[in-house]
Task: structure prediction
Amino acid sequence: MIIVKSEEEIDLLREPCRIVRDCLDFVGERIRAGMTTKEVDALVYDFITANGAEPSCLGYYGYPASACVSVNEVVVHGIPSERVLREGDIVSVDLCAYKNGFHGDGARTFRIGEVSPEKDKLVRVTEECFFKGVEGLKAGTPLYDIGYKVQKHAEANGFSVIRDYTGHGIGREMHEDPSVTNTGKRGTGPRLPANCVICVEPMIALGTWRVRILADGWTAVMQDGKSAAHYENTLVVREDGVEILTL
Ligand code: MF3
Ligand code: CO
Result:
């Protein structure tokens, strides 16, 4: 069931979303070659808690960290570790903050120093996929129009769309209905109601879209070992468009 939020609830949601946005900016200003992914996670934990929020990911189904830090061939749910970031890596940082009884959720893919032209394009196109996906989105839009637009832009650029993970509704729970797929058939799916809150999060790969999960039960890596990128925002669907809360 897609939950419609009241204006009061949306106001409460603004703060965790602002913290997510500011935390992603904070990480973006500091992430660099030589850092471990655990050090990136520590930045996230410190920022979120210093802002009076809780990192929603920590302990979520046993997840051991505050952020997912996914390097190159890791598409999502990279568990922070002693892995050292190197010049030329692309690193997605995905995090959620809980405050006022609501969750905010967002992700960015950062370039470490100079990256190859193909990785550079992948990161750019993945961001573009988000904005294409939400173009024209407003109350009454069929859900799978989003995935249709994301997929069209990714594939037009020679990339592929990860099928195994999706965006989602968000609110008092980190994951609510609906599943916001990044592929789809135009004009299909439930029509999104005004004041529903969703996370749109394209996950786009250079090669195959097929992933496998490592033995840790979380880390999702591309089967062909090629890079993937991820970009996510939390947004409110309005009568006349969208209000993006994590930008
Ligand atoms: N932030 C992720 C999402 O977009 C969820 C991360 S899973 C967790 O849905 F276990 F790390 F929390
Ligand atoms: Co999400």
Summary: Residues 105, 168, 199, 201, 232 surround cobalt (II) ion (ligand 2) (CB under 6 Å). DSSP finds four helices and 15 strands in the chain. The radius of gyration is 17 Å. Residues 122 and 200 are 17 Å apart (CA to CA).
